Amino acid sequence: MLKIANHYVSKVAFSLLFVEILILIGAFYAGSAIRFFDGDDFLLPRLDHFLMSACVFTAAIVFSMSALGMYQLNFSEGLRNPFFLQLVPSFAMAFGILTLVFYVAPELYFGRGILLLVFAISAAGILMARAIFFTSSKFRFLESRIIFLGNGALAKECGDLALHSNSYHKYDVAGYVAMPEEESRVAANSVLAMEPGMSLVALAQKYNVREIVVSVQNRRGGTFPIRELLECKLFGIKVTDAATFFERETCQIRVESLQPSWLVFGGGFDQSFMRTFMKRGFDLIVSIIILLLALPVMLFTAVCIKLEDGGALIYSQERVGKGGRSFKVLKFRSMGTDAEKGGKPQWAAQNDPRVTRVGGIIRKLRVDELPQLWNVFKGEMSFVGPRPERPYFVEQLSADIPYYNVRHSIKPGITGWAQVRYGYGASVEDAVQKLQYDLYYVKNNSLFLDLLVLIDTLKVVLFGSGR
């Protein structure tokens, strides 16, 4: 895994992105050369902004492919992955983006003939590149060979994650190292036998291991082999904590395996002036752009809500924001006027019977969230951040879930890492899952991660997934 601005990015996905950028730029030049071929000479069009046009074309394609989830790879499907079916709508979206760009900046326009050729060459190049990547993913030498220090419940959970992950990484689990006073939860034949006097580094070298994941729940006492782990690290073997392993592989921070010291001494949690300044600028710029683009949709939504039942268009509700301070969040009303006639707050759920017909549509498309742009302008919310919850649920969840209040160290958001990665939260168990994504965002928040959330949000809006 690579780390870009504290966010874990797959080397495979990053390599594929890099290769496809080169393919797209090359396709642009190749298409132009073919279009303007004249006898024995290639007469490239004399555009003052030819390189800029190539970059705009490449950016439009990459953005569209990202928005449709084409870089969220699933190698378990192999060549059965329907990336051709995703490529067609990606190119259609890119064509729409380029049409808008050419309208605003006509000097970048390079002609329909070139555009058709470039799209055809790009499609062929991308399909070939992906076929090669998915085929090469089957090669055994690309697998990372690891062992887990521990054989209890935490080690089993780590091992299951390594063996059954469907996405970027393939692991060859050599086995588990048993620890004294730990009840074994793994298969007996997967526990590695250590000869008398054998060190941990000798065991790792014997099985040609690249990484040791420390998955011991209790590290107190004199049985924890800290000196041997240091020796492994000095011999070039990577030593990874279980919390870091979960963070890296799932883009979550697991609360069950979390040690307070890991939060205190680990990296991340950037709350510097520069980060705050950039975050506020990002919020205002994105909110203004979204408001201008979505204004017709908001007006149409207001008319539909009024026509359906004649009730209020906007409703406000108390939510908990940064530092535990309460504020009034604004939304388009998507439920009936008597949604909580009993007076007791209720969890919102998938297919909630309280949701109106118009409400069901605007919730699925996230249009109901658009009035929260006013909360962003007021500085009560960010565009990207943890979902703000109601005080009633915050009090309940803070008592039941460790580290829940950590999410209140930054401003809540209209959209966020948990919203695009997880569905509706209708229970304490769902709240735990969403918290684990929120903790990841709070720890690793950056402009880069905000941009990724925005792209994923577009995918949610287009396909109605997540929340």
Automatic annotation (TrEMBL):
<keyword id="KW-1133">Transmembrane helix</keyword>
<dbReference type="InterPro" id="IPR017475">
    <property type="entry name" value="EPS_sugar_tfrase"/>
</dbReference>
<keyword id="KW-0472">Membrane</keyword>
<keyword id="KW-0812">Transmembrane</keyword>
<dbReference type="GO" id="GO:0016020">
    <property type="term" value="C:membrane"/>
</dbReference>
<feature type="transmembrane region" description="Helical">
    <location>
        <begin position="12"/>
        <end position="30"/>
    </location>
</feature>
<protein>
    <submittedName>
        <fullName>TIGR03013 family PEP-CTERM/XrtA system glycosyltransferase</fullName>
    </submittedName>
</protein>
<keyword id="KW-0808">Transferase</keyword>
<feature type="transmembrane region" description="Helical">
    <location>
        <begin position="282"/>
        <end position="303"/>
    </location>
</feature>
<feature type="transmembrane region" description="Helical">
    <location>
        <begin position="50"/>
        <end position="71"/>
    </location>
</feature>
<feature type="transmembrane region" description="Helical">
    <location>
        <begin position="109"/>
        <end position="133"/>
    </location>
</feature>
<feature type="transmembrane region" description="Helical">
    <location>
        <begin position="83"/>
        <end position="103"/>
    </location>
</feature>
<feature type="domain" description="Bacterial sugar transferase">
    <location>
        <begin position="279"/>
        <end position="462"/>
    </location>
</feature>
<comment type="similarity">
    <text>Belongs to the bacterial sugar transferase family.</text>
</comment>
<dbReference type="InterPro" id="IPR017464">
    <property type="entry name" value="Sugar_tfrase_EpsB_2"/>
</dbReference>
<dbReference type="InterPro" id="IPR003362">
    <property type="entry name" value="Bact_transf"/>
</dbReference>
<dbReference type="Pfam" id="PF02397">
    <property type="entry name" value="Bac_transf"/>
</dbReference>
<dbReference type="GO" id="GO:0016780">
    <property type="term" value="F:phosphotransferase activity, for other substituted phosphate groups"/>
</dbReference>
